[in-house]
Specification:
Blueprint (H helix, E strand, L loop, with lengths): L3 H5 L1 H5 L14 H4 L33 E2 L3 E13 L7 E6 L7 E5 L3 E8 L7 E4 L20 E6 L6 E7 L5 H6 L3 E7 L1 H5 L8 E9 L18 E4 L2 E2 L2 E6 L1 E8 L6 E5 L5 E6 L2 E9 L2 E3 L4 E7 L8 E6 L5 H4 L1 E10 L24 E9 L9 E3 L11 E3 L4 E8 L6 E5 L4 E6 L2 E2 L7 E2 L1 E4 L4 E7 L5 E6 L3 H5 L3 E6 L1
Parallel strand pairs: 2-5, 4-9, 10-14, 13-21, 22-25, 24-33
Antiparallel strand pairs: 1-2, 2-3, 5-7, 6-8, 8-9, 10-11, 11-12, 14-19, 15-18, 15-20, 16-17, 16-19, 20-21, 22-23, 25-31, 26-30, 26-32, 27-28, 27-29, 27-31, 32-33
Length: 489
């Protein structure tokens, strides 16, 4: 197994120091740029186009290379490619099999999926199934990378209920830039329960990844750690696009694919979004949400009923999250262009989850503090419980099969964070000392934690034994060191 230690140098890791010298981008432009072709002459790019000038694509669904009685096999090459993000401009991107936006894998609970990834880049990579309960050897640990010119097969046993998962690169110090440049894709896991419900299906069940970006004068994706100038919003890889819909119900599987940006999403006519799911699958009951907040890595499945609008209606999905409204206030426009039959409906009860009082008794209560330098230094560091990530250190040891309470606190005064734990889907019990709201009442693997805020989480470690990580999923922050290892034994 090739590790980040062998790739980036054992001396720094052994000393407990960052892999990159102070003042350099932690994995930033100098590193991932090696995978991209050298800059050459290009015609001057058009400026970022006005909103709603291009159609939103639907990500391609991958077909298995082969299928056996109990498994589907896929083969992908991680490679550089170009994509027309801005009209008429070829932008260099990193991709799974050339797809930008990333492709989607459909999976079913209890049926294995094997994905063989070939590394066609010039730096090491790893692939993490975000939200998946998988053995440590197939988790995509940030240090468990595979080298250029080699391949790695990940086996997903799918021993968990339905969920809108996703996969992305997780090579430490490079994860932020690799994902920013395109290395992510969807993994939609279903089961008999979800399939039995009369929710919108097929072409009316649409994955939607929302993220931000900044382009340089050549129309290339510009990457700098903690960049606040990523003000071009991309939806499925296109800047502020439109999407033509029929006058009927749609299910949209929303993912915040940004490195840092929080979104606060709402419909321009004031109609609430109907949220039916979160990270770990369906909620117990649908929730009418006037404004839906998503931090990086979080997912929310929503249903929008366009039948209340006549053909010709244009409805905007707006963002009131951080940023200037004229830059980041418009996300996506829905254009109602036809009528259609609609046999779908949203049941009053979607699934059954144990109430908080009936969850397994916690054997241990832990306190996790997320923090980073806020003193203006050029190379800020990220910490969990006051320590930067050290791949040789196990920060937390838990007993297999046990349940625990984790109180996660953001110690910063200005910087927001969020918290993602590998292996486990948890329950959010409290936010700021109050019971979690209905949108966070389902299974979660990523949760936002605002400055000075504490969230109380219930976790049960009954998946697999081994070493996993937890970290801030504002990926620039985890690349700065805001990550730690836990061991299930």
């Amino acid at each position: 197994m090739i590790t980040r230690r062998s790739v980036l140098g054992g001396a720094l890791a052994a000393a407990g120091l960052p892999f990159f010298a102070p003042g350099t981008s932690a994995g930033g432009e100098a590193h991932a740029a090696e995978a991209l072709p050298p800059a050459g002459p290009r015609r001057a790019p058009a400026p970022v186009p006005p909103a709603f000038g291009t159609a939103m694509p639907v990500p391609p669904v991958l077909r298995p290379l082969s299928s056996t009685g109990d498994a589907d096999v896929y083969e992908l090459t991680i490679r550089k490619a170009t994509a027309e993000i801005l009209p008429g401009v070829a932008t260099d991107v990193l991709t799974y099999d050339g797809h930008f936006p990333g492709p989607v894998i459909h999976a079913r609970s209890g049926r294995r999926v094997l994905v063989r990834h070939h590394n066609g880049l010039h730096m090491p990579v790893t692939v993490h199934l975000h939200g998946g309960s998988v053995p440590p050897s197939h988790d995509g640990n940030p240090m468990d990378v595979f080298a250029p010119g080699t391949a790695r097969t990940y086996v997903y046993t799918n021993r968990q209920p339905h969920a809108s998962l996703w996969f992305h690169d997780h090579a430490h110090h490079m994860e932020a830039e690799h994902v920013y440049r395109g290395l992510s894709g969807g993994y939609l896991l279903t089961d008999d329960l979800e399939q039995s419900l009369p929710l919108p299906k097929g072409r009316y069940d649409v994955p939607v990844t929302i993220r931000d970006a900044r382009f340089d004068e050549r129309g290339q994706l510009a990457y700098t750690m903690s960049d606040r100038q990523r003000t071009t919003l991309l939806v499925n890889g296109k800047p502020t696009p439109y999407f033509q819909v029929a006058a009927r119900k749609y299910r949209f599987r929303l993912l915040n694919g940004s490195n840092l940006r929080l979104f606060a999403l709402s419909l321009s006519d004031g109609t609430p979004l109907t949220q039916i799911g979160s990270d770990g699958g369906l909620l117990e009951r649908p929730v009418a949400v006037p404004v839906l907040t998503l931090s990086p890595g979080e997912r929310a499945d929503v249903v929008v009923d366009f039948s209340r609008h006549p053909v010709g209606t244009r409805l905007v999905l707006a963002n009131t999250g951080p940023g200037r409204p004229e830059q980041t206030g418009k996300v996506l426009r829905f254009d109602v262009v036809r009528t259609a039959d609609d046999p779908s409906r949203v049941p009053e009860v979607l699934r059954t989850l144990p109430p908080a009082a009936a969850l397994p008794k916690a054997a241990v209560t832990r306190h996790i503090e997320l923090g980073m330098d806020e003193d203006g230094r050029p190379d800020p560091r990220g910490f969990i419980n006051g320590r930067m990530f050290d791949p040789d250190r196990v920060d937390t040891t838990v007993a297999f099969g046990s349940s625990e309470i984790w109180n996660v606190t953001n110690t910063n005064k200005r910087a927001p964070h969020n918290f993602h734990v590998h292996l486990v889907q948890f329950r959010v019990l409290e936010r700021g000392g109050r019971p979690a709201g209905p949108t966070e009442a389902g299974l979660k693997d990523t949760v936002r934690v605002m400055p000075g805020e504490t969230v109380k989480l219930h976790m049960t470690f009954d998946g697999f034994r081994g070493d996993y990580v937890y970290h801030c999923h504002m990926l620039d922050h985890s690349a700065m060191g805001m990550m730690a290892t836990f061991r299930v034994r």
